[in-house]
Amino acid sequence: MMASTLELLRAAQAGGYAVGAFNVYNLEGALAVVAAAEQERCPAILQIHPAALVHGGSPLVALCLEAARRATVPMAVHLDHCTDLETVRAVLAAGLTSVMADGSRLDYEGNVAFTAEVAAMVHARGGCVEA
Questions:
Q1: Which CATH superfamily is domain 5-130 in?
Q2: Which end of the chain is less congested by CB atoms within 10 angstroms, N or C?
Q3: pTM of the model
Q4: For residue range 56-77, what is the model confidence (pLDDT) as tens digits?
Q5: 107 is catalytic
Q6: Distance CA 108, CA 62 (A)
Q7: Any idea what DSSP says for residue 102?
Q8: Among 30, 126, 76, 99, which Cα is nearest to 90's?
Q9: Catalytic residue among 80, 84, 102, 107
């Protein structure tokens, strides 16, 4: 059952528990995370690292979204450690609404500007940003 990252984190905060977030690189990894979450009857977050998109591209995003939709527990899908706006645009177009803006390689001003631009793009689609 698809949920937003924000929904999962708010429920966890209210319930006093943590939500695991697991980087996945292929169908098998995504299904393994879903199976473990279902077995434990707990929510989880499927995270996609930008390096995985080099080979997996939008099909990887689509399969993670579908795995989350089919899960019997709340699941979110999140782009982890994104360092460029082009990738943010691509995953938003593919259906993600949760992104980690990683401007750590930039100077302070550049990091703030990058994070603000990512936040504007993601918030315009009703999503959330980790920074």
A1: Aldolase class I (3.20.20.70)
A2: N
A3: 0.95
A4: 999 999 999 999 999 999 999 9
A5: no
A6: 34
A7: -
A8: 99
A9: 80
